[in-house]
Amino acid sequence: MFGFEDNLLLKLASVLNLFTANNMQEKFWPVHLQSIDVGAALEKMLYDDSTAGETFELYGPREYSLSQIATMVDNEIFKKRRHINLPKAVLKPLAGVLNKALWWHTMSADEVEREFLDQVIDPTAKTLKDLNIEPGDIANFTYHYLQGFRSQNYYDLPPATEKEKREDKKYIHVLDEL
To answer: Is the whole model's pTM more than 0.85, yes or no?
Structure first.
């Protein structure tokens, strides 16, 4: 799930060095938390008697890898974050020690383990579409959630249009940030 104060978009946008163990290849289907997607689905499941005894999987409309979302975040905040890949055997114990030694959340050994698990959708489970809810794509919400992470030079720029994104791919940009 993603939304305000989540552990997906904020984690990718806020830290300068992000430690990972799986080259950011974890695949999942992000679903929007604060729009009507999840809340409306839970309300329908609670009050609609036809949903009793049914299994539901609430997932987004498209599969992404963590690397794709990190690129999306970097493009939205106009900054390049460094992602340092460490072996699982090194990062998992380190994350466990950091989680116990520091009072603020950094990462846990469980999060490192989950990097190696892709989300698998159960084909027999009911989805948001069975509840007549169309899930929102994470690409449509990144501007709204990440605008605060932009520098003051780019803060008021609107999100790039599809035409601007295609034009931007044609050129190599060299930026010197001091």
So the answer is: no
Residue 103 structural domain: 9-168
174 in any annotated domain: no
Tokens of residue 77, six digits: 């905040």
CATH number at residue 161: 3.40.50.720
pLDDT confidence bin for 176, thresholds 50/70/90: very low
Tell me whether residue 80 is in a domain: yes
In a domain, residue 32? The reply is yes
pLDDT (mean) for 116-123: 92
| Residue 150: inside a domain | yes
| Predicted local distance difference test score (pLDDT) of residue 171 | 67
Average per-residue pLDDT for the chain: 84
